[in-house]
């Protein structure tokens, strides 16, 4: 049964179009009276009528804005009936309309989750319409508050994890500038499978690392934290190069949930003289080298496999080193493949390392440096892609003082 008011429409805030009401009432006379009252109130409403709880289960849908329920039906009654009705609704407000003028029962009904408790014979059209509108708005406010609380809880938990995933660099050299950015690929997420770190050891060498766990969910994020902390611990204990990567490969084998899960890694060790850097690649794209306005891609060879192979198949010799000469003004930009796998326009072509080099050159020629350089690159890559990037993106930039520009 449905009815449409012929009177002036009264808008319901936050609802586009007609209000949809599920009336749970077994008495045809009372149901007709409700329709008449709402028609006289001017509320633009579509009424679905259910005579039993079983029928209400069948008629309930996400399109219902409000449920107007009696507390005495042929197949249920009292507070048990109300509990059943509340269990059927997620977003809809519930208003009790009953013949029981019991204040104590009304308080208990509201405590259970009903938005209001009305007594038949004590309401007229305007009062009933107002009660329905207010109930819907209270329900919307409650839902917004619930989501806000959940978002705050999730935010606090993510912030706790971020303290492990996004570390504070350990650098004690005023001539060096460190910048990093992290963008998760999951919608509304703060965490993903990319990880990075920077540590200066007692001998003055600065060690950089960036890695990418395949996938970008919470499990991958947790594994990324584990790999980063293992790397930092090993570096501080004096391990570097192929031996360090072989140890990380062992750690990954024990910590991953699936044998198919792998991790790519790029490590760089900047010599205390700041004139050379030693690079190891484990299935990861090479960094970009900045020398003044010039930008070039680092060497792709020699390189080793991504981490994740059985330990009996690889040892430290699987990841040979590449020596990189640094100029007076230098910068090292490490990134994960999410930055270069974005599309160029509507086709299937990907940006790739060469495309990223071209974007970085153009940005450097306009005087962009430091964190602004990373932001400009990410923004331009997303612009070329036509939308936000779907994969996680991590970017790490270390440069000496001469490389920094306003």
From TrEMBL:
Pfam families (alphabetical): Response_reg, SpoIIE
GO annotation, biological process: phosphorelay signal transduction system
Domain Response regulatory: 20-135
InterPro entries xref list: Bact_Sigma-Reg, CheY-like_superfamily, PPM-type-like_dom_sf, PPM-type_phosphatase-like_dom, Sig_transdc_resp-reg_receiver
Superkingdom field: Bacteria
Gene3D superfamilies: 3.40.50.2300, PPM-type phosphatase domain (3.60.40.10)
Residues recorded with modification 4-aspartylphosphate: 70
MF term (GO), any: phosphatase activity
Alphabetic keyword roster: Hydrolase, Phosphoprotein
Protein name (database record): Serine phosphatase RsbU, regulator of sigma subunit
Organism this protein belongs to: Thermomonospora echinospora
